[in-house]
Amino acid sequence: MFKNILVPVDLANDDSNRAVAVAVEIAKATKDARVRLLNITAPTTPVVAQYLPEGWADKVDADNRQRLAKIAVANGLKEDSVRLRHGVVFDEVLAEARETKADLIVMASHHPEFSDYLLGSNATTVVRHADCSVLVLRK
Predict the structure, then answer these.
(1) CA dihedral for 64, 9, 28, 101, sign (positive or negative)
(2) Which domains, and CATH codes, for the chain?
(3) The pTM is what?
(4) What is the pLDDT of residues 111-128, one digit of tens each?
């Protein structure tokens, strides 16, 4: 069934923990599936970056990697199953899925707000453009 499962994790949102748990259950059911956790950090504009302390981005990456590794271990995954990327969330999820040949993306999504109807959510864009199956878990 599924061999390579990608789970985008929003470290500011506990809903992602449910997506990780569901992905791990799917991996157990299919045997030999690999679960990869992905965190995306939005790019910092040069105007904002000039006011941040030197090494700030590296510190944020190290902190995010550590937090993501804790989630991985808490769900029975290896620490090396985590990946960090920088950019626009849906672009980076789709790029990671292509690069790792993911055959399933499991992601959490909030209930749509008014702005989502105008602009669309990350989950909506991933569903529309992914080359693989996408499981979206509502809150």
Answers:
(1) negative
(2) 4-132 (3.40.50.620)
(3) 0.88
(4) 555 444 444 578 888 999
